[in-house]
Amino acid sequence: MTIGVYITYRILNIADLTVEGSITTGAAIAAVSITHGINPYLSVLFALFGGMAAGLITALLHVKLKIPALLSGILTMIALYSVNLRIMGKSNIPLLRVNTVYTVMENLGLSRQTAVMILGLIVVLGFVGILYWFFGTEIGCAIRATGNNPQMVRAQGINTNTMISIGLIISNGLVAVSGALIAQYQSFADIQMGIGSIVIGLASVIIGEVLFGKRSFFSRLVGLALGAITYRIIITLVLQLGMSPNDLKLFTAITVAVALSLPVFRSYLIPIKASTTRESSNAQRKKNNKGV
Amino acid sequence: MLSVKRITKVFNPGTVIENIVLKDLSLSLEAGDFVTLIGGNGSGKSTLLNCIAGVYPVEAGAIIIDGVDVTKFREPKRAAILGRVFQEPMLGTASNMGIEENLALALRRGQRRGLKWGISNKEREKYRELLTTLELGLENRLSTKVGLLSGGQRQALTLLMATLKEPKLLLLDEHTAALDPKTAQKVLEMSDLIVREHDLTTLMVTHNMRDAIQYGNRLIMMHEGRIILDIRGEEKKNLAVEDLLRRFGNASGEEFVDSDALLA
């Protein structure tokens, strides 16, 4: 899910609220498929398509109907609430005593925890690999450039609308897949489960960037996965320290707000140091720039 | 090569701030023409370039490039045959991406982009050679993020990108205006060299009268959305800034007011 949020937030430079709905869509599709006796792995694939469809809707609202990205995401998110209820038929589907992607592995003699870990690792590594490849291709490069400088990208003959759409579709597909996996892990799909997921995603993105750097694209992708895990660890820790689970979302929101505003605080608190480092980096730059 | 036929461009039509920027303007460029375009603020020179590039649709008229009517083509589609360098150095390149990644994006201008790897090793060699010709030491910094380059370096790189896949028409929109005088001079000379080497049809907007006279084989002056002067060949070579000012006065019935252009 973090990687999905990363694609829109960092690569495309859009805070895409669709994820709040598409994560539930993924869970809902998976839960309904499984209770109808469909193979759990196939259900994850269905969830992927469901999420991609949600991303496509947001993309159409944004690029074709020219609705601002933030609002497009909100509209799709709200619409998905009803759609998800329709898919599920009720607000909660339990997934007890049915085959999930995890029970298939448990049948091989693994414990529940190991099954979750192994499968999670495979999925994360798989997506990191696929995305690293994809964003290195011609289309992938074009998408990255679109988030960076759309005017230049159009001047290079690339349709920025298409690129934004592809990005939104992939991102929401990934988010739906994680929704499907979460539902199977916690043994239920719930209509409320998506609330706050964008903030959790952003928190993971930021933790990943702060702790694991943003040097190369590959290390960034790995950092995202580690960031999401770190976020979970932090949450577990504060819960064990006695914080009420009810305050969790507030805690997450404050964390993200603080993390996002760090650059501002830094320039307030240490103005002198900040300016000297800027000067020295300028000097460094001048040294590197021969001639012009 | 380029034929602009009676185009009109109006901003905010039908409102109180309606502004007719281009009025029934026609312009024709032969293949290999290097035209400098000069005019005061608000004369419509940048708008003309943007209309040719497809950034703005025109209200009336037609734009034909190399025999193809592109009036209805949108910006990305026109870009296949155009090379562009902007005034603002930040605009021409993607700052979060490497030098080679930017060049690779430019090399594929107008082509279908697929799932092939974004940069091939063969290309890298080509980029290295081309960057060597710029003499900026960029050839050894292929993976450096463009955001770390100076304005002049970025404009030089954008120029290279604009001509990497040979365009039918090169549009330079005051591409040296944001640079310090020395750097501006260097980038201009570089532009001149590239244009002549590839014999590119070029339209260059400039603020600087001396540059407008020195470079290219034809000079066009715009005023209030119209072309008021069109000087070429021998006549242009012997032109002086004072002549240009006088002729501007005669053609427009006004004093030329653009302190930048006079001081430059």
Summarize, please.
Chain A is mostly helical and 292 residues long. In chain A, 77% of the residues lie in helices and 2% in strands.
Overview of the structural elements:
- The complex is a heterodimer of chains A (292) and B (264).
- Chain A is mainly alpha-helical and 292 residues long.
- In chain A, 77% of the residues lie in helices and 2% in strands.
- Chain A folds into 2 domains: 1-195, no CATH class; 196-270, no CATH class.
- Chain B has 264 residues and is α/β, with parallel strands linked by helices.
- Chain B has a single domain, classed as P-loop containing nucleotide triphosphate hydrolases (Rossmann fold, 3-Layer(aba) Sandwich).
- Helices cover 36% and strands 23% of the residues of chain B.
- Chain B contains 10 helices and 10 strands.
- Chain B has helices at 45-53, 75-78, 99-107, 121-134, 151-164, 181-198, 209-214, 233-237, 241-252, 259-263; strands at residues 2-11, 19-29, 34-39, 60-65, 68-69, 82-85, 169-173, 202-205, 218-223, 226-232.
- The longest helix of chain B is centred in the last third of the chain and has 18 residues, at 181-198.
- The two termini of chain B are 31 Å apart.
- The model of chain B has no long low-confidence stretch (mean pLDDT 86).
- The A-B interface holds A 134, 136-142, 144-145, 148-149, 151-160, 285-286, 288-292 and B 53, 75-77, 79-80, 82, 84, 86, 90-97, 101-102, 104-106, 108-111, 113-119, 135-137, 141, 148-150, 152-153, 156, 161, 183, 186-187.
Strand order of the largest sheet of chain A: 1-2
Spatial sequence of strands, sheet with the most strands of chain B: 6-7-8-3-9-10
- Parts with pLDDT < 50 across at least 5 consecutive residues of chain A: 273-288
CATH architecture of chain B: 3-Layer(aba) Sandwich
CATH topology of chain B: Rossmann fold
> N-to-C SSE series of chain A?
HHHHEHHHHHEHHHH
Average pLDDT for all residues of chain B: 86
User: What integer value in Å does the Rg of chain A equal?
Assistant: 21 Å
Approximate shape of chain B: globular
Strand content of chain B: 15-25%
Helical amount among residues of chain B, as a percent range? 25-40%
Give me the strand/helix succession of chain B: EEEHEEHEHHHEHEHEEHHH
